[in-house]
Amino acid sequence: MATKVVKFGGSSLADANQFIKVANIIKADPSRKYVVPSAPGKRSSKDTKVTDMLYACYDTAVRGGDFIPMFNEIKKRYTDIIDGLGLDISLDSEFETIKHSFMARAGRDYAASRGEYLNGKILSSYLGFAFVDAAEVIYFGENSKLDLEQTCRAVKERLDKVGNAVIPGFYGSMPNDTVKTFSRGGSDITGSIVAAAMNADLYENWTDVSGFLVCDPRIVPNPEPIQTITYHELRELAYMGAGVLHEEAIFPVRKAGIPINIKNTNKPDDPGTMIVEQAGCDDCKFTITGIAGHRGFAAITIEKDMMNSELGFGRKVLEVFENHGISFEHMPSGIDTMSIVVRLDELAECEEDVIKSLRDAVSPDKIEIDRDIALIAIVGRGMKSQRGTAARIFAALAHAKINVKMIDQGSSELNVIVGIGNEYFEAAIKAIYAIFVSERL
Q1: Of 289, 325, 346, 429, which cross-links 380 as Cys (Cβ 3.0–4.6 Å)?
Q2: What is the pTM of this model?
Q3: How far out from the chain centre does Cα 334 lie?
Q4: pLDDT tens digit at each of 441 positions of the chain
Q5: SS3 for 402?
Q6: CA 395/CA 402 separation, integer angstroms
């Protein structure tokens, strides 16, 4: 029988009604053997995530404030779920341990991890699955980085013994047995690790949306869903701000050749988005797969006659940014010009020093800074087989009366990145979406 690892996000486990939906999904497919839960998310737009409540509660305890009212509010969130499910279990002993650990300053990582830990306890009881504490199988090294090899061995050894199991997401343990968390959204990583360790046939990531969308629905109402996306395309879009899946969650399953299916807990029959290693251009519904972007970039343009024949010119320029702790995003260039695109907030802290260092390093004829740049990435494997993609992008932007400040196309023909003024960011995305998607429907 096939094996699936299923991860459920905070919105999928926010209250008892959502727990029931999750249980029905799991029970509908016996191959869904290993479950990774997040902490309870928001029950409404005005609600607070339990993880945020735990952080605030712990910080109050560390400051010596009265954290008990906040602590009781967190406890009630879980009690309401237990009562709503009609379970005959108590988490009183766990909460007593947590309270004393807060008073003993066990750490913010420990505090935050209790959200997933407690949710895992409830879900394992409701499903009748074994509970496996992630701190006992997810290992970080002395450098605070995940020890994937040791972790996969421990996960497989434990899960082979217990059968169906619930493993809380988001955290593991350090060599000194203290709790260590991943970055926010890290339950995605836990699910990916479990899938890789158990050599699963599929990793299902259940959330509150039916997969990835071609672009941000806050900009384009009801954008088309993406049916299939490759790991490479996902990486490009995630880098530019598209977010459904924690980008670090890609690597364990990609290495193991395991596909990911992004699914909607509230609409389980929707196909969602399949994330795969390779996919052909012939299965692309549109020329592009997705559009994503960010505001807030700056371009430092350096002009110098004959710079192309000056050995080491580019290295010297980039060393200046490296020495100031600034990473560059893109570097379009001409024969006598070079532009370095960086994040404006990183440049703002040391702009004068950077300019002075550039003058000292390469003696440019002229340096100009454009602090008004937004970058938009148009990504899609279908662009390889379609002529005139860049021309269509320019045509869409020209029709919308948007000036293109920069263009950068990768040699893989997988993505095109354009730079425009910040104020045209949303209009540009709408124009590009219209010419590649709306007009094709």
Answers
A1: 289
A2: 0.83
A3: 35
A4: 799 999 999 999 999 999 999 999 999 999 999 999 999 999 999 999 999 999 999 999 999 999 999 999 999 999 999 999 999 999 999 999 999 999 999 999 999 999 999 999 999 999 999 999 999 999 999 999 999 999 999 999 999 999 999 999 999 999 999 999 998 778 899 999 999 999 999 999 999 888 888 999 999 999 998 888 888 888 788 777 766 566 677 788 888 889 999 999 999 999 999 999 877 656 667 888 899 999 999 999 999 999 988 999 999 999 999 999 999 988 888 889 999 999 999 999 899 999 999 999 999 999 999 999 999 999 988 777 677 788 899 999 999 999 999 888 766 668 889 999 999 999 999 999 999 998 665
A5: coil
A6: 10
3-state SS, 11-57, equals: HHHCCHHHHHHHHHHHHCCCCEEEEEECCCCCCCCCCCCHHHHHHHH
Q: Which one, of 84, 16, 85, 42, lies nearest residue 208 by Cα? A: 42
Q: What is the DSSP string of 267-287?
A: STTS--EEEES---GGG-SSS
Nearest to 275 by CA among 288, 262, 292, 289: 262
CA distance 198 to 201: 9
- Say if residues 208 and 9 touch (Cβ distance below 8 Å): yes
Alpha carbon 437 to chain centroid, angstroms:
25
Instruction: Read off the tokens for 256.
Output: 């193991």
Q: How far apart are CA 246 and CA 177, in angstroms?
A: 25
Q: Which residue has the tokens 């996306």?
A: 229
Q: What is the 3-state secondary structure (H, E, C) of 168-220?
A: CCCEEECCCCCEEECCCCCHHHHHHHHHHHCCCCEEEEEECCCCCECCCCCCC
Counting every residue written for the chain, the total comes to 441
Tokens 């009366």 correspond to 401
Strands (DSSP E) contained in 344-441 are 366-379, 406-409, 415-420
Q: Within 10 Å of residue 150's Cβ, how many Cβ atoms?
A: 14
Cα 6 to Cα 35, 211, 265, 278, 293, distances in angstroms = 5, 15, 11, 22, 29
Residue type at position 247: E
